[in-house]
Amino acid sequence: MIGRVRAGIIAAALAAAVLVAKGVAATPHVIATGRDWLGPIAVMAILILYAAAAFFGAPPSNREALALGARLGLFAGGVYVAEILAEYIWLPADNTALGLIEFGAVFLIFAVAGFAAAVRIGRLRPAVASAVWASLISALIWYLAVLAVLLLFRGSERQVLVLRAEGTFEDMRRSGMTDLDTFVMQDTLGAGFYHLLLSPILATVLGGAGAGVGLLFRRLRPPSPRKLP
Questions:
Q1: Rounded CA gap, 172 and 178, in Å?
Q2: Is the C or the N end of the chain the one with fewer CB within 10 Å?
Q3: Confidence class of residue 222 from pLDDT cuts 50, 70 and 90?
């Protein structure tokens, strides 16, 4: 299973890189100046770091943590995908509530990953690592879904309604830009970079808190009765 998890993370990072390249190629004004190249380069760099973490990470002592983190990461990724699709299916006038539910649920999953791993393994570092692996996997799923939906619905009336519900047009007016496709692509690159960067950091904090509670629970839990010979 560990090999499949590692291969899956690397494949997801590669797929995200391909979608980023496709989106940039379809929106040439995104890289109209030398400074504009920073967005695609930054996202590509962090995707390479994700792939490197999968390739070089997970030493033998953390294999159980990786397996648990992978399962919870897939679940958190499913939460992300469900929210993104819900925006395009239900077309709410304001996406704030959906976003709060989405991120609240994912953050809770990070804490649960740390808690569950601490109870099962009994050590802090693997427990935090479990939450971090969950964050890496879920963040990649989130970015793949964001990019795929963006390219799939590009220029459609449904996408315009979603962007309006997210306040994108107000943000574009404040930025002074006039090309919607360019603004949305640049915004997607920036959001991808910061989300991919901050996700494992938040998972470290939340997973550490969950792991602390899990270790305390493990210590206070009454021992299992011994079986008679």
A1: 7
A2: C
A3: low
